[in-house]
């Protein structure tokens, strides 16, 4: 196999892509095709956008320090197993609701693209397709379920049972969205997809919603759930037979509590800056948490990853795998299933090439691969 076969054949399916391979430029392209409401919901972040900017600034501060002459294999294997789930590389699709805002095929296009590559897909409670539809589209491919814990215990139990029956193997409990954040782009338009019934597919197909007069009002009564506390977690353990991962952890204290409460993992994440404005960059929270609980918990990461090199940085700072958020939706907006396929292939390809060029044939033991760029280094005067 020659070089170009390897680059284009393996990574991109052998043809010139219709979408740029510069994933950092993807947002700009996606902005051209999204409706104003969809753009306002998907792209911006909470408040002034400070948390989202901090996410990116943190990635810029860390620099990869490649090592040489390490006998890197011509054919590398980045595959790994995370909480019982095999994956071709330590990459997963982050749970994201309301995907029909990006493309009419919504989550079905995303899960099909992920499944074809074996990349695990995490199904959001706020999806525009139900557990069962997504499971059918995804076939045997790995999938996890992300719970927004409804205030109704009956609905909560029904969601857990439906997810289990539909083959979702691990549970992600998102903790940073007890309420929606202050999102000016939506507030200025008075736009919330859920009020139009968008993002309620799991709810509307639930037996507990049968015969309900006003399903949107019913949803509104059970979505905001800021009252949850650590002592609620044993309930989940009793009713979910499989790994449980807490998403939205950015403090060391909470990471230690997650371990003490017997959780299996945490996702270090600030929800892509969509919840708290002025929050700590997720990447800045990662190394301290990984050092403290990495031997007891599976530490995963999202928020701000835009390309394969970013994923390498997060892995080197202690994440066992990285979840991809908005870039997947940008691919979805630009090309449906083919667009998501393209984005995932680019991520897998750039992750592989960056690791190989850094002296690694797999994605294990990357400690020491990044350093913090020092602002004092510059031309001598
Ligand atoms: C449009 C959109 C919808 C989202 N919906 C959910 C969701 O339903 N559940 C969840 O846990 N996180 C949700 N997230 C957050 C992602 O899982 C992830 O934490 C975030 O997108 C990572 O940041 P990034 O987009 O900057 O990579 C959503 C993100 C976006 C952009
Ligand atoms: C009501 C769920 C909101 C979806 C979400 O998590 C997001 O938009 O960030």
UniProtKB/TrEMBL annotation:
| Keyword check for Isomerase | yes
Name the positions where FMN binds: 95-97, 124, 146, 174, 247, 269, 302-306, 325-326
Q: Report which residue ranges the record marks as coiled coil.
A: none
Q: Where is the FMN hydroxy acid dehydrogenase domain?
A: 15-376
Required cofactors, per record? Answer: FMN
- List the Gene Ontology MF annotations in alphabetical order: FMN binding; isomerase activity; oxidoreductase activity, acting on CH-OH group of donors
Tell me any Pfam family this protein matches: FMN_dh
Q: Where does glyoxylate bind?
A: 41, 148, 183, 271, 274
Answer yes or no on keyword Acyltransferase.
Answer: no
Keywords, in A-Z order: Flavoprotein, FMN, Isomerase, Oxidoreductase
Active-site residues per Swiss-Prot or TrEMBL entry: 271 (proton acceptor)
Family per UniProt? Answer: Belongs to the FMN-dependent alpha-hydroxy acid dehydrogenase family.
What name has this protein been given in UniProt?
Isopentenyl diphosphate isomerase/L-lactate dehydrogenase-like FMN-dependent dehydrogenase
Q: Which organism is it from?
A: Nonomuraea soli
Lineage of producing organism: Bacteria, Bacillati, Actinomycetota, Actinomycetes, Streptosporangiales
